[in-house]
Amino acid sequence: MSTMKVGIAMSGGVDSAVAASLLQEQGYQVHGFFMVLPLVQLEVQLQRVQEVAAALTVPLTCIDLRHQFSDQIIRYFIDGYRAGQTPNPCVQCNRFIKFGLLAATMMHAGMDKIATGHYARVQPTGEHVALFRGTDRLKDQSYFLARLISTQLQNLLFPLGEWTKQQVYQQAQTLGLQFQGEESQDVCFLSQGLPSFLAGQGIHDTTGPIVTMDGTLLGEHRGVWNYTIGQRRGLGLPDATPWYVVGIDAANNRIIVGKNTDLLQRVCSLHSLQWSQPPPPFPWRGQVQLRLHHTPAAAQVDQTGPDCWRILFDTPQRAITPGQFAVFYEGDQVVGSGVISLSAAEPGAIDW
């Protein structure tokens, strides 16, 4: 057996369970680590991960990160909604909590490598280590991992990178583990729904106007945090063709609506750009993915000012959403990312 110790983040779900088993088969000394987070179903999840660890004979350590998660992730999430944006807490959690604080705790405990059950791959590219898409395109999670920096990637193992979800379930059955087709929730702390969560954080509905792109008053909204770009339902605006949210003007407490064609934009601005390796020459061209289930599209990225960047897509993209991450790909490789500031339909957007 290898003397290399691998710490794996375990949730009690099928992916981390099978990933831990695969590492055992490869001869690693596997130690499970469970993040204790401020979740409604924490006790149920803790019991489940203890059962899975016992079934695999994997020692398990619980790390209490409730305070750090609340301070860094939940605060970021709430601040984003208050600003009229649609934040992505999973990307931030991976960068600062799971592959930040948790990984540091694992290494301090004597682990040589860090592993998770993500569907992604880490491969050497010359002098660097790079992040690549997982083989299973339907489950690929490289988008959520795009903000990891090179020092974090160097010690990572993704045992499921070459596996499909179906293969993972089949392997779980072989191990005698029953998961019944369960899937992880997109945002772990929203088990009670977004409105209930925000209300519990002291954010209550504040009504305001719903207007068209030319400022015509059409109705009244229930609070800007209840809406996101591309939303159609819940507007209460009957018309011959549906209205959609095309802009959220939090500063003036307005929801801006338009028709489906108004959601199609070729341009958006970014901030907080981050490259996985030394920055390429500009303009950079490649594929850009705007959210988890967005089909990557050909685009060009240019710098337009200090911490201000522009994406120009070859073809219009639907519902570009401020607060989300734009992830840059060359083939299957993640090469960079940035935070979407404005789309061309947003208040204050520059007419490029």
Structure description:
By secondary structure, this protein is of the alpha/beta class. Mean pLDDT is 92; it is low at 347-352. It has 3 domains: 5-174, 3-Layer(aba) Sandwich (Rossmann fold), CATH 3.40.50.620; 205-258, Roll (SH3 type barrels), CATH 2.30.30; 262-343, Elongation Factor Tu (Ef-tu), domain 3 (Beta Barrel), CATH 2.40.30.10. It is globular and about 70 Å long. The strands form 4 sheets. The protein has a 6-stranded antiparallel beta barrel with strand order 12-15-14-13-16-17. A 5-stranded parallel β-sheet has the order 3-2-1-4-7, with helices on both faces. Strands 9-8-11-10 form a 4-stranded mixed β-sheet, with no helix packed on it. A hairpin with a 4-residue loop joins strand 8 and strand 9 (217-221). Helices cover 24% and strands 32% of the residues.
The computed structural class is: alpha/beta
Adjacency order of strands in the biggest sheet: 12-15-14-13-16-17
Number of strands: 17
The coarse overall form would be globular
The rounded distance between the terminal residues' Cα atoms is: 60 Å
| Strand proportion | 25-35%
Q: What is the average per-residue confidence, as pLDDT, rounded to a whole number?
A: 92
Major beta-sheet overview: 6 strands, antiparallel, barrel
Q: What CATH first level of the largest domain would be assigned?
A: Alpha Beta
- Continuous helix count: 7
Under CATH, the topology of the largest domain is which?
Rossmann fold
Poorly predicted regions: 347-352
Instruction: State the domain count.
Output: 3
Q: Radius of gyration in whole Å, from Cα?
A: 22 Å
CATH architecture of the largest domain: 3-Layer(aba) Sandwich
